[in-house]
Write a structure and sequence with these properties.
The chain is mainly α. The protein has one domain. About 50% of the residues lie in helices and about 0% in strands. The protein contains three helices and no strands. The longest helix is centred in the last third of the chain and has 16 residues. It is flat and about 40 Å long.
């Protein structure tokens, strides 16, 4: 079941800036079905670290259809 959206996609649609809406779920943030565990914070950190370390090569592969 989908949960609510965040302000990121709303702002991105109005500005045209490429964005990715990510995040670790938090209890009662959007839904009672979402819960955050200690490992989720570590996984988010590792994911973002890898993304920024590889951003240049990833950015070259991204195709934005307009």
């Amino acid at each position: 079941m989908p949960c609510g959206s965040t302000i990121g996609p709303i702002l991105a649609s109005g500005t045209g800036i490429r964005t990715v809406d990510i995040g670790a779920p938090q209890l009662s943030m959007d839904s009672i079905r979402e819960m955050c565990a200690v490992d989720d914070v570590k996984h988010s950190y590792e994911h973002l670290k890898a993304f920024y370390e590889e951003f240049t090569s990833l950015d070259a592969k991204i195709s934005v259809g307009i």
